[in-house]
Model the fold of this input.
Amino acid sequence: MNTVRISLSLLSVIAVSEAIYKRWIPNTNFENASNWNEQRVPCAQDTAMFSKDQRVSVFIQSPHRLTNLYMPWDGEFILSHGATLMAASRDDPECGPGISVNFHDADRYQWFDPKLWNSALSIDDFEMGRLLFSVDAERVPCQFDDVIFSPETSFRVQLKETQSDVQLRSISVLGQKFTTNEDFSQYLKSPTGKLQFPGPAQPQITNSRCQESTGCLCGNDGMLQEVCSALLQDNGNKCPEVTCANPVQPVGHCCGICGVIISLEYSSAFNLDTYRSRLLHMFLSLEKYSSVKLAISKVKFSSSLSVFRLGEDLKIQIVLIDGKEGSLAGSDALQLGYDIMADTETHGDSFGITKAEMQFASGGVTSPHKGSMSAGAISGIVIGTLLGLSLMGAAYFLYRMDLCRLPYSEFFSSWRIGSRLEDTVSVDHAGFENPIFEPAAENDQASDTGEGNLKEVTLQQSGFQFTNPVFDSNFDV
Ligand SMILES: *[C@@H]1O[C@H](CO)[C@@H](O)[C@H](O)[C@H]1NC(C)=O
Done:
């Protein structure tokens, strides 16, 4: 009896994933200069203005002297220990002549705005600046996350109704942690709760952890539209321009990126936390990758890149971007992508990784035909397969013939591309090689081909794939 119970509880300890913390960034604190239209906190000769219909909770940390204070009808001041608001009895020489200083509208902060959240693996990590990077949908709180509104801060967050409820593991407000929905709903009815979370929707607190060591879905698929419109609202709802020709589009991300997407298929032996820390410690800590950001999570691919599997698929998605600009954008990320692919090749088995695919976009626009230029050097797909040869043997021949259009398969090539092939055969051939070795040459070639031919190169791009020579050893037939 005892042993059964012990092993059961052991299991339940093992089969959960690490929680991720999401921390809300903005606050409505009195002392925060950016909350005032003068970008400074009002001082003795000033008038502090809250408009009368402003609904806001304002945390005050220290004593303040003011000439006038206009308060809102429906707002509150939370005074921390030692904080006071007093009428100024004499002038402060550092304050200037005295003006009206207005408190900013606090209604503009949306829960679904990914820019307003930080995420980390522990609370200490926030203080140490060890923040996690994620795709946009996962920058806002996911279903198993612990959400933190920093102690000693006031805030106001608008939460729209969406297709699905916002679910959270827990939520901490003003230093108080809520782990049940009852307690939190009660809190939301309090005057402070109403000012902080005006709604209309309410987050649901589940206190449940991710019970899957291979990782859990974030659960924000249904909110991607809200996330992206909040993210891009200051940019006219448009994605920022990128410098690579064919940006790749990660699942759960609002815009295409110059960088790398690696998708992993996994067995039950895979552990997301273990593998994440391997990547962070082995690769991301290296000096040469200091500008690279890595996101890793389980996602639902709706159409697979793989030739053999179509339909919906759960995979581990790794997204790599770097801080490089212009023609170098994505180049460090690409280097790291190759390192990770090589690592899955040699050690993937022991981490429960059964297959790895890499897709990338990097390099500058070297042609006046911005955005539509495409050549092997700037985007492509690398497939590294760790599956047994038995499954791959027969398929491999077809795969190479069909997708890679080896120069020796002239018949297939001509059949697919028809009479326009002549001019582009060389590009085709070059595209087959690993572009990391010859990016410049390839680019030149593409821009030399002129307008008419560029079109043809673009046409081929859709089916463009190549095999990374690193992985060729797998397929020695
Ligand atoms: C001040 O408020 C702004 C906007 O709410 C926020 O981004 C910033 O982090 C705050 N600064 C401090 C020091 O709390």
User: Anything to note?
Assistant: Residues 25-27, 32, 34-35 surround 2-acetamido-2-deoxy-beta-D-glucopyranose (CB under 6 Å). The chain is about 25% helix and 20% strand. The longest strand covers residues 293-301. The longest helix spans residues 331-347.
